[in-house]
Design a protein that fits this description.
Elements: H1 3-25, H2 40-51, H3 56-72, H4 76-88, H5 90-97, H6 106-129, H7 131-135, H8 152-160, H9 165-181, H10 187-198, H11 204-213
Helix pairs in contact: 1-2, 1-3, 2-10, 3-9, 4-5, 4-8, 6-8, 6-9
Pfam family, one: DUF4125
Organism: Bifidobacterium callitrichidarum
Protein name: DUF4125 domain-containing protein
Length: 214
């Protein structure tokens, strides 16, 4: 990859994070504006860490999803949080959210669950090896959800549900290729490595040691 291509990829990632932030600012929360909606540095760190694991085609398709959402009056960030409520607030979800968001086909839902199973497995592996960093993550599984705590699994399910068919196809292929080619190439670990590096640490071991000392 040339320096020009690398810079263009960085610019695309930054544009996606900023676009998500703009949609996040237009997301209404029960009880008023959430504190995290005013914390751009943390939002930027967390979302950029994820997108640093994505290559250009997937980034480009997701950027197009965000543009299309604006064009048709959807808000993918609002929808993501709404989909999570299928677990955290099922009655409200059934009454006030499910009728107004795109319904997933049975095939799409089943494919998503395969992806989620792989990523939950990766996250579990990561937490076993980096317990202090793991403690700072969300709880792991949907079974652990509460009205005020959303798990890694439920968050991922909500996010995947907002992807267009083309974007999800590319995302699914990325997860499958990493799982098949190198079982140790853990995308959760890659994302957390990006997160701690953006936070000023050199690697996961240094960040884990800092958490142990805290």
């Amino acid at each position: 990859m040339t320096a020009e291509q690398s810079n263009a990829l960085d610019e695309l990632r930054e544009a996606i994070v900023r676009h998500e932030w703009d949609q996040f600012q237009r997301t209404n929360n029960e009880g008023g504006r959430a504190a995290c909606q005013g914390n751009w540095p943390v939002f930027h760190q967390m979302r950029l860490a994820q997108f640093l694991t994505w290559e250009h085609p997937l980034l480009a398709f997701y950027a197009a999803d965000l543009d299309e959402a604006d064009h048709v009056g959807r808000n993918l960030v609002t929808e993501k949080y709404g989909r999570m409520m299928a677990s955290t607030a099922p009655a409200e979800y059934a009454a006030n959210i499910e009728p107004y968001i795109p319904k997933l086909t049975k095939d799409r839902a089943a494919r998503q669950e395969q992806v989620i199973t792989q990523q939950v497995s990766w996250a579990s592996d990561f937490r076993a090896r980096y317990p202090k960093l793991g403690e700072a993550m969300r709880v792991l599984t949907t079974a652990e959800d509460t009205p005020t705590a959303t798990s890694f699994e439920t968050y991922l399910r909500g996010e995947l549900g907002t992807y267009s068919p083309a974007t999800f196809d590319l995302y699914e292929a990325m997860i499958r290729e990493r799982a098949d080619a190198d079982p140790q190439r853990n995308i959760t670990e890659e994302t957390l490595l990006n997160t701690v590096r953006l936070g000023g640490f050199s690697d996961l071991d240094e960040a884990e040691a800092a958490q142990q000392a805290a």
